[in-house]
Amino acid sequence: MQWLTPSWGYNAARLRRSVRIIGAGHFETAIEEGLKATQIQATYSLGYTNVAFGYMYSNHLSEAEALMRKAAEAKVDAIELSLVRYFLAFLKNDEASMEQETTQRKSKSQAQGWFEHQEALTSAYHGRLKAAARLSNSAVTLAQQAGLREHASQFAGARAVWCVLYGVGDEGRSSAAAAKPLYRSRDADYGPALTFAFLRDSSQAHQIQAEF
Length: 212
What we know:
This protein is mainly α. 75% of the residues lie in helices and 0% in strands.
């Protein structure tokens, strides 16, 4: 078990640093830290995930694809890697690979709403708002059932944003209002705050900011 190996604690600390760095937009440094983690432990799935997102955020898709092949060769698989593969296919407009990934991961119930959320975002991007709403509802429900209130709030907040962008202001407002009581944090508050800003409801947006 990787959490019992001597290097696990060191790698976990390195990964936490990588996550903080990537959140601040320092992608090259985050990639470097993550790659060191995978060199120490070739089966360290979170290391691959963080490096892959660093590559994608910096528009290095071929490097992200090569990393996914390396993970597959090391027989590493995790929920997060499925999210990476799907995201890569989306960025390449590869609908066949997206569909294949969706089919292969249907039995992985431990994703706790992330798969449904990712597919909801894709449906919303293509203007399939009914399908997006259905998938988003499933994502929120699964996250709540798993006790992941922050994730549920993030999923609902994302739906609020795309509703407003498509001109469905009332639904966007109701989704933002539903997201707020689920959980309060920087990431959870982002969707509702952005929604109210788009709606030109500065009082609600400022209230979220003041409360946080």
